[in-house]
Amino acid sequence: MNHTANARSWVEHANGHNDFPLQNLPLGIFSRPGEARRCGVAIGDAILDLEAVLAAGLFDGAAKAAVEATRGGALNAFFALGRSARVALRERLQVLLGEHSEHQAALQAALYPASACQLHVPAQIGDYTDFYVGIEHAKNVGKLFRPDNPLLPNYKYVPIGYHGRASTIRPSGTDVRRPGQTLPAGHSEPSFGPCARLDYELELGIWIGQGNDMGQAIPVGDAAEHVAGLCLLNDWSARDIQAWEYQPLGPFLSKSFITTISPWVVTAEALEPFRCAQPARPDGDPQPLSYLLDKRDQAAGAFDIELEVLLLTERMREQGAAPHRLTLSNTRSMYWTVAQLVAHHSVNGCQLQPGDLFGSGTLSGATPGSYGSLLEITEGGKLPVELASGEVRKFLEDGDEIILRARCTRDGVPSIGFGECRGTVIAAN
Prior knowledge:
eight-stranded mixed β-sheet, Fumarylacetoacetate hydrolase, domain 2, 27 strands, SH3 type barrels, single chain, 11 helices, six-stranded mixed β-sheet, 2 domains, alpha+beta
């Protein structure tokens, strides 16, 4: 698994690419006009068609079995094969796409400009669980509603989560329509119409690889082996609907109208150099219960991934202006590790399956400029964001586009990225 700085590709635009150099090789499902969906790998500004490479006879052994498992336009069967299949495929691809590859001519025919392809959700998502592991977000939101007690007692003992709606998870570029039934301020009865407090939430998406049998918990020390990779996730939120409906059972229609993900699965192996120690808990915080505590996970179970949110309004597009940065944050704000989420989700015997998706919850930092939602940035709409275009925003309006980006950097290692997770708000039906 080559992460060295001098590893280069014969695909010249991949060398030094912001997101997809040879050291990344994320997997996704793509299609070309009039053709079926199939698995591809992002390399620079192009997509390598793995089925075409398979047909050319350039895979064998475990790598061949891995590509065969991607057939059918979804990665579930590939995820089910686990780490060994991902490693075999990754190592073979790094040879094929490396600068000294003897198969450049054959591979060239299987390489398509990414701009000419459509990207899809990479797996059939059986279940989607959204967690709440960004403690700074939890505190910021808690302060808006409970200034004297922002975190409820269970937060530091249990990874909080709820079961979301898998059927409306969509890839980057899908438009966003406003839902709604709301209870306007000062009214005693609700009304129906487009929500007025539409928001984004900056999250990490976590793809489950191998699952578990019902009734069999996944130990926290083994949980990382059950994670296939990561993506970006925008948990669009209708705050006015949420305020009306969330008691007593939590989010429902305020969250289920769409969830947007970046379409590339950045594999656990590509992310290995960017693992780091889980930040120490503040003095006075309880230690996790034993089923959530593992020394190796605490030493290297977190990720150092820079996260960014940009806003592009309709007026800014007309002016040719650059997007406005709303947020610059990092995954190190996660109070729980990915392995702890997997262990907790399965501890009661809940069956996880290949292609299940977790959302991390909003990943805000501790300071202004790093908050992962407009709810926090504007303090519930009290402090509007002023844009260079002369516009202000309390929440999102029709024509607004939210762009999520992520970047992994470390000295001595080529940086890798996730691609973009974009969505534009359009008029309600």
